[in-house]
Amino acid sequence: MALTDSDRAKIRVENLSFYYGKNRVLKDNNIDIAENRVTAIIGPSGSGKSTHIRVYNRMFELYAGQRATGRVLLDGADVLDRRRIDGMELRSRVGMVFGKPTPFPMSVRDNVAFGLRLQGIRGAELEGRIMRALQDAALWDELKDHLEVLATSLPAGQQQRLCIARALAVEPDVLLLDDPASQLDPSATAQIEDLIRHMRGRLTVVMVTHNLQQAARVSDYTAFFYLGEVVEHAPTNVLFTRPAERRTEDYITGKFG
Amino acid sequence: MNLVVIRRKAANAVVAGLAAMAAAIMLACLAWIFHALLARGIDGLDVAFFSRLPQPSETPGGGIADALAGTALLTGMAAAIGVPVGLLAGIHLAEYGRDCAVARSVRFVSDVLNGTPSIVVGVFLYGLLVRPTGRFSGIAGAAALGVIMLPIVTRTTEEMLAMVPGPLREAAFALGAPAWTVTFRVSLRAAFPGIMTGVLLAFARVTGETAALLLTTFDGSRTAIRPTGPTASLAVTTFTHAMSPHHDRQQLAWTAALVLTAAVLLLSIVGRMLRAKVRWPSWR
Fold first, then answer.
1. B65 shares its domain with B188
2. In chain B, how many domains are there?
3. pTM attached to this predicted model
């Protein structure tokens, strides 16, 4: 669907359908995700938002009985083509952060180093990348003297920014955020939103959110999902002020969902 | 208060009372056992008891140093067999097998093994290691104890890994980690205190095991501690001395029983404390 002229599609989704067993939960999704922009996905619970982005990094393939059909072209290559694209390699290019913070039960440093070590990065380069990732997540000043602290003992807001730092450390092309502030208080949420705004222009971000104001605050594009379909996808200011679809208007004005 | 409310309160009081009574009976049993063991066993408790070998009957001053060393040797060797196998089996069940036919059978067999009377395990190892070699041995005993530990370690490992939150594992996968890295560097680490609890409880279980040893290590009192021959153990020593007509032997049995119970209690308490450490700070 509609990207403005200046934007290029980083991800092109074509006729994507998704099945949990025989239950079809995504129906012929077609959407272009703009490169180096923030795209928000909104919609009521159960509309397939999370399921949709979990196709981008093939997270679903960890579970038996989940299946996707159609094409998801990342820079032109279909990520659903298992013979061409390895799942592990794909996931190191397409990072993901979850709703609940998921710090690993190890030190702050080891958390950030986790993905880097998987890529064989060691020594001085490792230290540099850890520092940069923590800076990118606005955590360096707070945690530079506490790198050996157990990550699970941090407050939730810091845990979530640490998870973002961990995902950014491997320098992915795309970052998927699955309602990243859903478990956080307003001030921690504001910090996360600041981070997302800073990623704009450097990284393609796709963010699921149940919070309409959040989508309006941080995203360039917004897609409205309903019952597994992409109802409307447009620049955020257009979608929120002049929605083309009746269902979009009903949702953003609070008539359902 | 109307009748309905009174009836509800009465029912609540009855159930709470019964539960409290059941708990009290259980605690009383434990207290009783301890009291009996302390009352009769404490007299024999001195340094010589731990440091000296058993003496011939009617000779005062014997100890159970051989049984202590034997139990340490047997449980240590049993753990060397039971813990690695149980750990890997548990990992298979929780992380890889999940719902396949193999995993279901392993789970079933493991539960059956857990419920198998230990004397049966003893007979099995008797046929497998004692008969063919023609001698009772510490190795046969350790193997029997290892078989008894196996299902306990397997099922606790599986249960503790299953408690690791799904998003935590997904977060590791999302960084491009292969499955074994996720299991060994993230899931196992998160589940570690719980798994240690299972291992300690398995230790406690086999420390007091007697039946399986009667047919494998035999009573190795007064023999040198070596895995290839009959080996003494706290449990079997307690049993044989308790059967003795001599008073000083019976005294040794009481003291050995006291030491055994205290050791098992200590292992269980440490195990419980570790279990309490399994907390998922923000991602419960």
1. yes
2. 2
3. 0.83
